[in-house]
Each structure stands twice: as structure tokens, then as C-alpha cells.
Amino acid sequence: MNLRGWSGRSLAGVVMILFVFFFAVPIVWLLLSVTKSAKALTVANPFSVGSWHDFVANWNQLFGFQDGAVTTWIGNSAVYAGGALVLTLLVSIPAGYALALTEFKLRRALLVLTLVVMLIPSTALVLPIFLELNSAGLIGSPLSVILPMSFFPFGVYLTYIYFSTSIPRDLLAAARIDGCTEVQVFTRIALPLGAPIVALVAFFSFVQNWNNFFLPFVMLPSSDGYPIQVGLTSLLASTPAFNPSSAGSDSVQLPTLALATVVSVLPVLIVFLFSQRFLVSGMTAGGTKE
Question: What is the model's pTM?
Fold first, then answer.
């Protein structure tokens, strides 16, 4: 039995090491690529470290592309993700609270509808959303991206689960007896206690909105309005290694493209690092019940 247990743990350890190696190698290669020149990237050891001079050259080429288009794209991503995040929190948190802790007609039907909508792929909704926004004359404007991104049924469901399992109804009833209105019960009692789930919904919403590609690609016809994820396609099209006809003054080398990928991920990484405590609290809330 001891040998069998030891063999099982060893096998599990080997499998985990293989998976870590499989996922870690591309990330390490990507981080090292930004420090190399285009020639060193193809000829030198894949896992050798380049130079600071090459990194600065790649940085200057990236942010000098099309007169600073990358800076514009990052700013657009911040506007779209931030605007959608604010609307998501204003809608999802009260909606989840109402579904969990208040009684009204069609409450169960709304909850079922929320679950059904969660199962629909977001790409399947792009065409009807496009037709709807086109009728309203919003195509090409920031609202054509922000409004659809604000529709976040997963956030409503997360909030529903949190409030239905972690907030005692007696506490809210006591606040009502003391004279609080329903709005005051939500803002003064439930919302402060729901800080972990607010942070969790905010994180998932921000990550989804920041990484969204297909919706902005369809809604925004001009590159001036692109977010960074869509802008990466312009960089890819200007890379001779992928598009030989793009060779010229505006061409982008492979290390610069790798740097653009790293830059596009940095905001999400920074948000994750600064919100870990709240994320863990939100994920474990409701796991135990007093």
C-alpha cells in the first residue's frame, strides 16, 4: 500500500511538472524575446537573455508605430474596460442582491433566464447586438463597445450566490425594524459586507472586457478607436515574418510584436496582483456555512 501510494504521488508529480513545463516554456521564451534583436531571436539560443539596448530599441519601435497608435489603443482599452466595469457593477450587484434577498414576482423566472443567458456564447450575440446598435446609430462610437460589455450575467449569478449564502436574512430584517428603507439596507448593510464579491465581479468583468476582441473588431471600423487587443492584429499585419508584403518603414519586427503582447497583458496582471486578497475572499465566500 505504501509503495502504491508513493507511486501514485510520483506519477501525479511527474504529470504536474510536465504541465508546468508545457505552459511555462512559451511564457519564458516570450519574456526573453523582448530583450533581443530580430536576428538574435532567430539565430541565438531561444532561452538566452538579450541586451538592454535591444529592449529599448523594441520599445521605441512599438510606441513609435503609426505615430503612437499603441498608446491610443491602450487608452481606448482603458476607457472601454473601465466604462463597462462601472456599468456592470451598477447593474450586476443590485440585481444579484435582489434575486437573492428580496421577494418579488417573476424572481425565479429572472434567475432561470440569467442562467440560460450565461450558457449562450457571447459571439452568438454579436450580430443581433450589431443590428440593434446600428439602428440606434451607435456603431463606431465608444458606446457600441461599452454597452454590450456591461451585460454581464455571470456577475449577477456570482452576486446571487454570495448574498444568498453569506448574508444572514435576520441581519437585514433587524435593519428594516430599525427603520431602514430597502435602499439603505442594501447600501449600509449588504454592500459593505459584500465587498469581496464586488471585487470578484469587478475583476472578472475587467479581464473579460480588456481581453475582448471580436466585439470591438466588429463595432469599430476605424483603427483610431481600436482597443489594444484589436490593435495587435494591425501589428501582426505589419510584421514581415507573417505578412511579407508589409516590408517598409512601418514594418514591425518579431521582438517588437512579442513586446506588444506583453504590454497588452500587463494591466490585467497588475490588477490581479493588487486584488488577490479580495479575490480569494470572494471565491471562498459561501464555501462554509455557520
Answer: 0.85
The contacts of residue 198 (CB under 8 Å, 6+ apart) are 89, 93, 191
Residue 73 CA to residue 79 CA, distance in Å, equals: 10
User: In terms of C-beta distances under 8 Å and separation of at least 24 residues, what long-range contacts does 247-252 make, across chains too?
Assistant: 250/65, 250/66, 252/61, 252/62, 252/65
Phi, psi of 123 (to 5 degrees): -65, -25
C-alpha to C-alpha distance for 78 and 231, rounded to whole angstroms? 14
- Nearest alpha carbon to residue 61 among 38, 93, 39, 90: 38
* pLDDT (tens place) for every residue of the chain, 290 residues total: 444 556 667 777 888 888 888 888 889 999 999 999 888 888 888 888 888 999 999 999 999 888 889 999 999 999 999 999 999 999 999 999 988 888 888 888 888 888 888 888 888 888 899 999 999 999 989 999 999 999 899 999 999 998 888 888 888 888 888 888 888 888 888 888 888 889 889 999 999 999 999 999 999 988 888 999 999 998 888 888 787 776 666 788 889 999 999 999 999 988 888 777 766 665 555 554 44
Give the CATH number of domain 69-223+269-284. Answer: 1.10.3720.10
Would you list the domain boundaries of the chain?
69-223+269-284
d(CA 190, CA 93): 10
Taking the alpha carbons of 213, 214, 219, 220 in that order, is the dihedral positive or negative? Answer: positive
Buried (b) or exposed (e) across 124-150, using 16+ Cβ within 10 A? eebeebbeebeeeebbbebbbbbbbbb
